[in-house]
Specification:
Alpha-Beta Plaits; 568 residues; 8-stranded mixed barrel; TIM Barrel; Rossmann fold; 20 strands; binds magnesium ion; binds ligand C2E; alpha/beta; 5-stranded parallel beta sheet; 22 helices
């Protein structure tokens, strides 16, 4: 950076190294009008001066025959030392034979003694300085300053150039670190940087033995163009093994590697890496493996996803998206009481049939389109609550899911309040479910938004609690009104002791936070009984009902209304 910032108004410094005073004086006179000149009387003094301020000199004029340390040795020392290697060197010689040896040792140019052509000497100095500064500028644009690997643009440019004459079979590899933002958040940026540098160094080491090159494509994502290997498992084991050496408990550094093993030369090189990235991303929810290959299944999935993205707007217009409602019952009284419902979206695709939200919500969360769906669901849910109130005289509040993307919508508060107003509802009629993992994405932003929404009176339910990463510590600062226990705990609570203990732990946390627990995914009587005994207040699950179309859900409300009026 320092090098980039130099401009023509800055006076450059030149180091003149010669044991004869008369030579130093002659050169000094020639140069000092345009440059700051510093002198050294022998090679050792020159090296000491350079070491004291690496990068401070724009050029060294170097005599060869000197006492203590000769010019040839200075050349060798400079070119083998990373701190000094960047300085251009012009050698001053009397004999032509010395020129060859100097070139080999890394000299950039020569000046013949005696110095009788001052303009030529000045012009040569200027040209070499200019060349080096341009080169440094290019170097700094070519490489990522943190890791020293190529920057993204140059990486692809090099591939394109290489491909014009390369006939080695190559693979595209994408490597990334899972939940890297959490490492940054928990351990600090410098620890994050240390991990990135370590991974970059390991990649560089792999490339010393194998043909290829690498770049840092984004924060924690590395692209490697690598001579084809039959099996990448060994490479993965080596890298994972070495990264494991960085003890960072309790957060494991989990590296994921996607390989595009069958590069299609008809695709662009960016596409080769898109495909490798797809393989890498496929490991997101798979904790068993760290290596995935791009294949036709992934390709089909990509096409399927592209189709879903293409169809979302027309499906919204045509009413292919519908909202189902699943009841939540309060279970601590004499009889289960219908307390509220969760709105869950369904896609009746005109040609692909019924598509589960598990297939499209994560996709639309990844590209922001989920906001459109959420707004649609919020509107639908609110109008249903109002309609049911008019029809049955009781209010059954509905929880809607708020995706992590919605949190970044600066208008979220106004949007929700506007929907309520339009339907003459209050914030007591629409609850908001936010998945626990959203809290670890950007805790401070989320806390800010949630605080605003709670101030308006909204009730916030933390969805899928136990599946994410909130530390107990974080829970005390996160504003919530309800914990929704992750469905996995309920599923296995009667099958294994650990899940049961975790259910109990969630109950303890809820008592500590003084908020009720909703247990999701309750299917069996035995689960119901156990949860009731543990003090769980609300239950949602097939035990009572699957998510239902609005008309069918209305029948549950009607039944509840009848029971209420009978009891009163
Ligand atoms: P979620 O918000 O945790 O919703 C609960 C899921 O559990 C629903 O799956 C529901 O149908 C299912 N479920 C409820 N009871 C049982 C049971 O007893 N057994 C089993 N096996 N499953 C049960 P669904 O509708 O497939 O939704 C999956 C996820 O998709 C939801 O998880 C939520 O994260 C997301 N989602 C659904 N609708 C929306 C939406 O409108 N907006 C957003 N942002 N996300 C949504
Ligand atoms: Mg939910
Ligand atoms: Mg849930």
């Amino acid at each position: 950076m320092e090098k980039i910032l130099r401009n023509s108004n800055v006076r450059r410094r030149i180091l003149v190294v010669d044991d004869e005073m008369i030579n130093r004086e002659i050169l000094g006179n020639m140069l000092s009008h345009d440059y700051d000149v510093v002198y050294a009387e022998n090679g050792q003094q020159a090296i000491d001066t350079l070491r004291k301020e690496p990068g401070a000199f724009s050029l060294m004029l170097l005599d060869l025959l000197m006492p203590v340390l000769g010019g040839q040795k200075v050349l060798e020392a400079c070119r083998s030392d990373a701190d000094l290697a960047g300085i251009p060197i012009i050698v001053m010689t009397q004999e032509e034979e010395a020129e060859v040896a100097s070139i080999r040792a890394g000299a950039d140019d020569f000046i013949k003694k005696p110095y009788n052509m001052p303009e030529v000497i000045l012009a040569r100095c200027e040209r070499i300085i200019d060349l080096y500064e341009k080169k440094n500028l290019i170097d700094s644009a070519e490489t990522d300053p943190l890791t020293g690997l190529y920057s993204n643009d140059f990486f692809f440019e090099y591939i394109r150039q290489l491909e014009q004459f390369n006939d080695t079979k190559m693979d595209a590899i994408v490597m990334d670190i899972e939940h890297f933002h959490l490492i940054n958040e928990i351990y600090g940026r410098s620890e994050g940087d240390r991990i990135l540098k370590k991974l970059a160094a390991l990649i560089t080491r792999e490339l010393e033995d194998n043909f290829g090159f690498a770049c840092r494509a984004s924060a924690d994502t590395f692209y490697i163009y690598h001579a084809q290997m039959d099996d990448y498992q060994k490479l993965v084991d080596r890298i994972v093994g070495e990264m494991g050496g960085l003890s960072l408990s309790p957060a494991h550094i989990r590296i994921r590697i996607g390989v595009n093993h069958e590069i299609d030369k008809n695709d662009t090189c960016e596409q080769w890496f898109d495909h490798a990235k797809l393989a890498c991303n496929s490991l997101r929810r798979d904790y068993t493996g760290q290596l995935a290959y791009y294949d036709s299944k992934l390709h089909d999935r990509q096409l399927y996803h592209a189709r879903l993205i293409q169809d979302i707007d027309s499906s919204l217009e045509n009413g292919d998206f519908v909202v189902f409602y699943q009841p939540k019952y309060g279970i601590q009284g004499d009889r289960p009481v219908l307390r509220s419902a969760e709105a869950l979206i369904r896609w009746r695709h005109p040609s692909l049939g019924m598509i589960s939200p598990g297939d499209f919500i994560p996709l639309f969360e990844g590209n922001g389109l989920v906001q459109k769906l959420d707004r649609f669901v919020w509107e639908q849910a609110a109008s249903r609550v109002a309609e049911w109130r008019r029809s049955y005289g009781i209010t059954v509040p509905v929880s809607v899911n708020v995706s992590r993307i919605d949190i970044y919508d600066p208008d979220i508060e106004d949007r929700l309040l506007g929907i309520l107003k339009k339907n003459s509802l209050s914030t007591a009629d629409l609850f908001l479910e936010i998945t626990e993992s959203a809290y670890s994405d950007n805790a401070s932003r989320l806390i800010e938004v949630v605080n605003d929404l709670r101030r308006d009176g909204f009730r916030i339910e933390m969805d899928d609690f136990g599946s994410g990463y909130s530390s107990l510590n974080m829970l005390t600062t996160i504003p919530i009104d309800v914990l929704k226990m992750d469905m996995q705990f309920v599923r296995y609570m009667l099958k294994d002791e650990k899940s049961l203990k975790l259910c109990e732990l969630v109950m303890d946390i809820s008592r500590f936070l003084n908020v009720p627990v909703v247990a999701e995914g309750v299917e069996e009587q035995a689960q119901y009984d156990k949860l009731r005994e543990m003090g769980c207040e609300i239950i949602q699950g097939y035990y009572f009902s699957k998510p239902l179309p609005a008309e069918e859900f209305a029948a549950l409300i009607e039944k509840e209304a009848a029971l209420c009026s009978k009891n009163s």
